[in-house]
Amino acid sequence: MSLRIRRNPRLERIRRNRLHPEYESLMAARVSAIGPTGLRRINPHQTGFVMVQGRKRLNRLNPDGVGFAGAGQPGRVQAKEKPLHRVADPLGYVAAVLDLPGGRLSSHDRDVLGLAQQLAQAKDEPHAVLAIALGDVRETDLGGAGADRVIQLNQLHNEPLTGYCPELKRAILNATEQHYQPAFWLFPDSIDGGADLGSRWAVQLGERAAVQAWQVSKETTVCRGGSQLTDWHRPTPRVLLLAPECGAPVEELRHEALPLELTLPEPVSVTIEDLGPVSVDPSQIALSEAEFILAAGNGVRNWDQFHQVATVLGATEGASRVAVDDGYMPRHRQVGASGTWVSAWVYLAVGISGAIQHLQGIGQCETVIAINLDAGCDMVRRADLTVIADSEAVFAELLNLMNERQTGIAPQGVTVHEGEARHVA
Amino acid sequence: MLPESRSKTMASQAMKIAALVSVGQHPLSRRERRADQDARAVELALSLSPELPSLIHVGSARNESLRAYLGMGLNNLKVLNADQDVDAVPALASYLGEQALDIVLTGVRAECGEGSGLLPYAVADQLGWPIVPRIVSVVSIAGGYAEVWQALPRGQRRALRVPLPFVASVDPAAEPARQSAFGPAQRGSIDSRPCAAEPDQARANWQQHPAKPRPKRLAVAKGGTAAERMKAATAKPQGQGGQVITEGTDREKAEAILARLVAEGVVR
Ligand SMILES: Cc1cc2nc3c(=O)[nH]c(=O)nc-3n(C[C@H](O)[C@H](O)[C@H](O)COP(=O)(O)OP(=O)(O)OC[C@H]3O[C@@H](n4cnc5c(N)ncnc54)[C@H](O)[C@@H]3O)c2cc1C
What we know:
- The structure holds 2 protein chains of 2 kinds.
- Chain A is an alpha/beta fold.
- Chain A folds into 3 domains: 9-53, no CATH class; 84-259, 3-Layer(aba) Sandwich (Rossmann fold), CATH 3.40.50.620; 282-422, TPP-binding domain (Rossmann fold, 3-Layer(aba) Sandwich).
- Chain A has 12 helices and 23 strands.
- Chain B is an alpha/beta fold.
- Chain B has helices at residues 4-9, 36-48, 67-70, 88-98, 119-127, 182-187, 226-234, 250-264; strands at 17-20, 23-25, 32-34, 54-59, 76-81, 103-107, 131-142, 145-151, 157-163, 166-170, 189-194, 207-210, 243-245.
- Chain B is extended and about 75 Å long.
- The model of chain B is unreliable at 1-9 (pLDDT under 50).
- The chains are: A alpha/beta, B alpha/beta.
- Flavin-adenine dinucleotide binds next to helix 8, helix 9 and strand 22 of chain A.
């Protein structure tokens, strides 16, 4: 059955007009039902009428009036597909070079694509947004984020584009410049590589790039100066390094994300060689920078065991204010309003009740795991996974499990979980 | 993060290192001071070589806050005399080109003025040297190559190998700079020499204003019925409440936690 709402405009008009000669007869057709106990019953599904946008309207003057015959199913909202925006024959391009940390669009990338769309639409001739995605790309919905055309490469002459390879990437930008001459080059001004590549590219083009640009139109750009203390108003250059939230991400439309042809550049000689990531001692990382934090509160009694677990898991240690005030942890390890605001990917809170001052500090954490005895505390409400258990007992089992992992005698349970996890990830 | 001993072992070779320094600005009082990132660059330069690094500044030699760099234990600071509004890049590049240097260190962004962070790139481009941004330490120098560690988000580090000579910008995550001592700061000498710097034409018609506070982006609920949008706008954001494991042995609970940690990729 079709979900389209079928409307009868004539009946609707009559229904809205109490002076219409047919009004009485139309309304009289519906009598309010009297329930078995003598109470008047209203069927809520039959009251009111449906407006053009699919929203339901109530007629207060006629509360027990029922809907029109065949008025469709009000309240059934269809999951509408967003309309597709096409740029058939672009006369120019706005290039957005994406960071894609971990292969996915960051919110900064989405802002840059949103701004690229604004700039493309401000042009008089039709311009298309050209997203340049280099390296491992796991994002499948570049079109939904605002890319009309895409150049996607994960290697150049068998050299993978993962890791640190600004020279290879610059060669690809060079080839793009020769073929398509984008009107603007947009980069996210981020530590994930956008600022570096954008600076290199601006210097190569001999263009005075706008850095930390946060308000961009076709003609003028406002950039933040040093120490965030000044704003520089200047004409918009061709190369822009954009601050986060520089533009609104695309939400209402889908875009085509058609792949574009690119003749690969000649092989380039690479001077900077990537030797890979360095394993960092997690206990040395500043709390605000840490990726994985194991935090202890008033519910931890065995502190030697806590430090041991942190070492074995490779986590940076954190603490609630109570643990710090009691002298078990140093002050610079305190998480929360009067301590450090952390942005860890995973935050494992052990014996922490989740006072608001503490929860403020972990507002930006992606995944929160809690170990607590009290299933009703605020931390449990915040956490994505909670284990109701005694901290010392769970710590002991975690140590056993990690020990088994390292010595290779993995018990059945864990291997199964691992397999699943990898499958999901 | 660099083991102290490792940087000291490299001190056997004499390297010619230069640090480009600028005048900083305190973020609240706006008083002139040594720039924090530049001071870290000087600190890194001091740890790399027994020979004292050379300090280079383009601007006015009369600026007293430059002496704070000398107070870190250096004897001499070279100033290429120029006005406020000159383009420092050509002057720096031609001066550095004459000096037979191995490494040029800079901060990532200046604390005053435009603060675009493009200067190290432009200087490296004019010199034809590689540029490595955001390093925290130089781990080893051997056979004409240096191994450096670069700062990544979330406290991670990456090792890179670059041929000498190169330009590098020093990340704020590098070792903090030592205190500046008053006596040595007054005793050190500031040599100024004229330089042929052109006024910065590109910036001539830009306007500088005090920074305007940026509006915070609000989360706007879209779609749904009016009641849903109203609720989304007013309701206290409730953590949807994740999975809660109450039953089972401690071992099973620990397994559940570990599985999640592995799935998130923080335990390998
Ligand atoms: C102005 C101000 C600023 C503050 N700033 C901060 C701040 O920056 N950071 C901060 O953390 N706090 C801050 N606080 C303090 C905050 O209000 C709380 O008092 C504090 O966070 C509580 O710490 P807690 O969760 O460790 O302790 P508790 O509230 O005592 O919670 C202990 C939790 O451990 C559980 N537990 C007990 N035994 C066990 C066990 N054996 N196994 C497992 N779980 C167990 C309990 O069920 C309980 O949920 C501030 C307070 C004020 C007034």
